[in-house]
Amino acid sequence: MSVIQALRGTLGEDRVLTGDDMAAWSTDWTGRYRWTPLCVVRPGSTEEVCAVMRIAHAAAVPVVPVSGHTGLAGGTHGDGAVMLSLERLNAIEEIRPEARVAVVGAGVVLSALHEAAEAQGLSFPMTFGARGSARIGGLLATNAGGSNVLRYGNTRDLVLGLEAVTAEGRVLDLMTALHKNNAGYDLRHLLIGSEGTLAVITRAVLKLVRQPRAHATAMVAARSVSEALVLLNRLQDVSGGAVEAFEYMPAAYMDTYLALHPEARAPFDSPQAVNILLELGVTAPRDSTPGEDGLVPVTGSLQETLAELMEQGLVLDAVVARSETQRAEMWARREAAAEVSLSRLGALVNDVAVPLDAVEAFLTEAGARCRALDPDVQEMVVAHLGDGNVHYALWPSGAAEGGALVEAVEEVVRALGGTFSAEHGIGLHKKASMARHRDPVALEAMRAVKTALDPKGILNPGKVLP
Amino acid sequence: MSVIQALRGTLGEDRVLTGDDMAAWSTDWTGRYRWTPLCVVRPGSTEEVCAVMRIAHAAAVPVVPVSGHTGLAGGTHGDGAVMLSLERLNAIEEIRPEARVAVVGAGVVLSALHEAAEAQGLSFPMTFGARGSARIGGLLATNAGGSNVLRYGNTRDLVLGLEAVTAEGRVLDLMTALHKNNAGYDLRHLLIGSEGTLAVITRAVLKLVRQPRAHATAMVAARSVSEALVLLNRLQDVSGGAVEAFEYMPAAYMDTYLALHPEARAPFDSPQAVNILLELGVTAPRDSTPGEDGLVPVTGSLQETLAELMEQGLVLDAVVARSETQRAEMWARREAAAEVSLSRLGALVNDVAVPLDAVEAFLTEAGARCRALDPDVQEMVVAHLGDGNVHYALWPSGAAEGGALVEAVEEVVRALGGTFSAEHGIGLHKKASMARHRDPVALEAMRAVKTALDPKGILNPGKVLP
């Protein structure tokens, strides 16, 4: 019996797609990768995921787990593979307000979880542009980052427990809602960020946080990235660490965004070199009652602080959002990042991070190195500046080989103690960088772990490890 | 050439101890475990640790890493083993105030790091009673918990990077100061909490936090554990999540403490059933200027909040610390926990955690189950109540077998979705519990990882995995 027949026998005809029905699972959001799967399976329970894995394991057929298709690193490429879609595991099983946890399936869409948490006065603080499509399984598999990491950490910091299915089709039960649990190796953190190469994540227990009772959101123009970081520290001091997002968009980014969105408004009356989107979230009730000016105090106090900093010359211009509409308009600029960066054919994406105090040096040095190779190269930068995470896209003119430009960027990153993959992961896209820049002893340990947990090498083969 | 000769040849005579010189490395703090090592080595650098591991690996001799000897689970037991002491790797190599990180050796004593961070206006927020002896290597190897986990997380949440030496004596370089880094499997989290069974941690990059500019510390008497948790939520709401510690000491604990420390004062005028030590830390400057009453506002506002809650009957009595001396007196009661729990011969220590909303049920049910087995058993409880982490010691009368009492407690824990090991780890002490209560598929995955990274099984053999 063929693998497809065996899968159909177990899941039912309509849960195993082939031919043209596989179109949606034969490419990813970037369009950069295209492949031809063996078939697509759509199991509806953990038990069915186990059955799929048992069949694939017996036949030694590769399996590529996939949820929202929004990855940027080719992590779901699967020529000849069983594409294991987790989208039907989309139950928000439980929201426990007292314990501040959510129990969810891997197929839950991020924005659906946002809404469910908010309905209980809580918040799941991980967020990014693709939240309407990205699903929890993919978030965990890639340890997704985003715009609130500054305050709430990466995806892994928001996961208390998880359930996964092993390569041979058994349930690995790590479901717990505890904040302290020292009972053996932390397999949870090993699976998070392993991009489906060690096991298939099927469910998770996620931390929720108190929903900020008030947000203060502003666009600020600064003279330089370094001065923007002084501003960040000042705001952290004044607010007691309440800054949730601190996002950098240079002039070239803003120009491209406005060109792609003729209906959109520029953030300031005159164009600025350093545009910062910042947001504070405050939970204490004393900060949430609107004052005489109609602003909640946190917004008022942000306005005062920014006014002071303008007097000191640290802030060149500033606009504080006075409504949810204005706040949404500010965020729309930032959340077009992937669209903006990839709007030119042949764009080279670098998702790097360096220590905060090295961001300015990185931008200067990487720019110089790239222009030495390709004088007409254009940089398209957008950054989670508060984390030191720079999305450093390059639009080459063709004067230099793309790989040479990426290597040049990565050498600057490495010299500054940074990483070539901050939040997008490795997939296929950054495997060469893994080989170039990760410690060989660490790579060997990763390979040993991979072989230990997936001896036949059927789980998302060819990804992550060079 | 014998292993001892080889080690002496490499490290020098005086860095390899044998015979009576090994006394300090032949038992741990509890005195419960005693053993006879092969020898004790005291390397002074990562390179020397590599050399030790190469010699041990070639000879297939067991190696037990040890730093501060303050573990409670027998994790450093080492009959016939090379005791690898990390205490000489005690350099605080760097404190980078801008990046808020410390780079330290595994031998740094926790309180030394506290002082070094404070000298820069920062704080390393992990703390517990043994901070004057415990060393960073042990903290990381056991993922130490303590009293501030509620706000700052466990040890693993404070580690950005680390360096370790593998079983075969090579340097595993995971040193990074980045907050976002998705470049392959997270070996850092795999090593943290693995109790020296996968590699020897030699250095680390640790997160520092802004030092709270003001603390408000109080002892509060509540009617019940459940009402104390209502109080915790109320304080979190009012302070915007600034509660750093919320510690529970019942009457029996307080009585024993006072009996052991005749010089100490009782917390309240009359004895109380539910004694809570709580502490808030506030970083914003607006809360740190003393008011007319000489109290910083955060203390004043705690006093007001507690007065309101007394009127509502939720708080029975309360004392707010008005000086550092009073604060230290409050903490001294809590930090005698290990001494108090183990002050009776034959004490059975259970370090459990349950979801917050199940703590009261745990205490009631565990007490009933234990008294059914041993009517004269005495409970000696102290808890990090804000984390659901209960140190549930039992002083048995001898009417029941100790193992039966522990199993009864663990069954109650498991039924409530809890863990039998919250922060102390497994070592030798909780191996039977691992076998009873952890998912067999998870145990198998852990064993596969152990074999992959330490094929000869020389690193702290016999620990953690049943």
Give the helix/strand layout.
Two copies of one chain form a homodimer.
Chain A: H1 3-11, E1 16-17, E2 39-41, H2 46-59, E3 63-66, E4 82-85, E5 92-96, E6 101-105, H3 110-118, E7 122-123, H4 136-142, H5 149-152, E8 159-165, E9 171-174, H6 187-191, E10 200-207, E11 209-210, E12 214-222, H7 225-239, E13 243-250, H8 251-260, E14 274-282, H9 297-311, E15 315-320, H10 324-335, H11 337-341, E16 351-353, H12 359-373, E17 378-384, E18 389-395, H13 402-415, H14 431-437, H15 440-453
Parallel strand pairs in A: 2-4, 3-4
Antiparallel strand pairs in A: 1-2, 5-6, 6-10, 7-11, 8-9, 8-10, 12-14, 12-15, 13-14, 13-17, 16-18, 17-18
Helix pairs in contact in A: 1-2, 12-13
How much helix is in the residues of chain A?
Answer: 25-40%
Please report the two chains with the greatest interface, counting residues with C-beta closer than 8 angstroms to the partner's C-beta. Answer: A-B, 86 and 86 residues
Q: Helical stretch count of chain A? A: 15
| Percentage of residues in strands of chain A | 15-25%
Count of extended strands of chain A: 18
Under the CATH scheme, which architecture of the largest domain in chain A would be assigned? 2-Layer Sandwich
Structural domain tally of chain A: 4
Find the structural class of chain A using helix and strand composition: alpha+beta
The name CATH uses for the topology of the largest domain in chain A is: Alpha-Beta Plaits
**Overall mean pLDDT of chain A:** 94
Taken from the alpha-carbon principal axes, the silhouette of chain A is globular
Strand order of the largest sheet of chain A: 15-12-14-13-17-18-16
CATH domain class of the largest domain in chain A? Alpha Beta
- Multimerization status: homodimer
- Span of the ends, CA to CA of chain A: 34 Å
What's the main sheet of chain A like? Answer: 7 strands, antiparallel
Uncertain ranges of chain A = none
Computed Rg of chain A: 23 Å
Protein name (chains A, B): FAD-binding protein
Keywords (chains A, B): FAD, Flavoprotein
Organism (chains A, B): Ponticoccus alexandrii
Domain FAD-binding PCMH-type (chains A, B): 33-211
